[in-house]
């Protein structure tokens, strides 16, 4: 998680006046042959989502949102911070000592768990698996009684300890016991499908070791070797850095130290700066920053001792700051579609942060639209971003090349799916949402020429300011702050529902589709 997120709640509103735009429509001609050659198109953008810290997974609201997003995307796993936090209760070596001191020696019975209590961990993971979602296990943060410096805290609201361990032998025992326990409970065939990731963003203030890189590599080495000693089938990776950092040096370290890894992971946000991510002095726009980072890391892997190492961007989003005009708005639809177009083939997984606003890094949520990272706002209110993911889930698994930077065409099971979008930058920036006084740009008309379509009719799904956008209804309600009434929640849930599809028809193999600025449209032709 990017530390600047913590500052977002106190950002001064920097809302800018929208530039004057021509009301004239733009137009683009696109030809698509449904029987053209294809390339594989795995849905790498909807395999894993992030979420609030581990303990929140015990809440009914969290699990309700989990089911909502699972139904929309069929995602496979969820990553969160803090499975080792004291609130989860795994590590407390004094607990057993105190309990046994109160018992006669003849009454002492051990369950083999030693210093560890996996009760909450079991409830967290059981809850995920019951919904057919696996854990993406981020091993963080440091239990207080294992920390070299228990006062080394991150400034998140829940104050995780970011210290290195006081004793690596104790850390190794904890990681070993963790792995042995989940294998005993869920079986090695299941656990072997999970990803285990060492820590979170150690290049920032989430890691208190100094120097950061060398001490993180030490933590990684111990963690990877401990896990692999339990079972070589466990998948372990890192460095889980912010701003796409350290990957090349991490891979070289693996080679030099003969340390195992099954994947590399790193993070990027679309409003990260070029100097921090790319090491250049550029003004990289929000719609291409993620692609530039993914491409850079992909090329670093190709040039490394492990050119076939899988790449996972285990955290990304359009903004690390709380910007309602970005993450709460329909803007995400066109931004996401364009990232999918650009990053296809460069990464194995891109894990959107996060699926739900059941999330407390800056404290308890006060309003459903504050620029949270989730697809679902507080009170299970679907955002336009959820509907964007829902629409793009309808794309197929084989991609047809299209000569356009605003379209994707795919096939699967006698279906042809076409995504069209009209990207426009957010109107204004900052932590305070200001309702647009006009469109973010002109409409765009796509003149489609579709050859060999499986049918002449299609369903057209839309996500834009007027379709599947609860934020519009929130504005109409006067943007109430604080707790909402049940009636208000009901109105917002209905307004945020995916808009019903339109029925459209090809005429002489042609069709015109108009998409407003920041809008996304997905056509599905079914035989």
From TrEMBL:
Q: Does the keyword Hydrolase belong to this entry?
A: yes
Domain named Glycosyl hydrolases family 39 N-terminal catalytic is located at: 30-495
Q: Superkingdom of the source?
A: Bacteria
Gene3D superfamilies hit by this protein: Glycosidases, Glycosyl hydrolase domain, family 39
Q: Which Pfam families match?
A: Glyco_hydro_39
Q: Name one GO molecular function term.
A: hydrolase activity
Identify the stretch annotated as signal peptide in this record. 1-24
Keywords in alphabetical order, please.
Answer: Glycosidase, Hydrolase, Signal
InterPro entries, per the entry: GH (IPR017853), GH39_as (IPR049165), GH39_cat (IPR049166), Glyco_hydro_39 (IPR000514), Glycosyl_Hydrolase_39 (IPR051923)
Query: Is the Hydrolase keyword given for this protein?
Result: yes
Similarity comment = Belongs to the glycosyl hydrolase 39 family.
Q: What is this protein called?
A: Glycosyl hydrolase family 39
Organism of origin: Granulicella cerasi
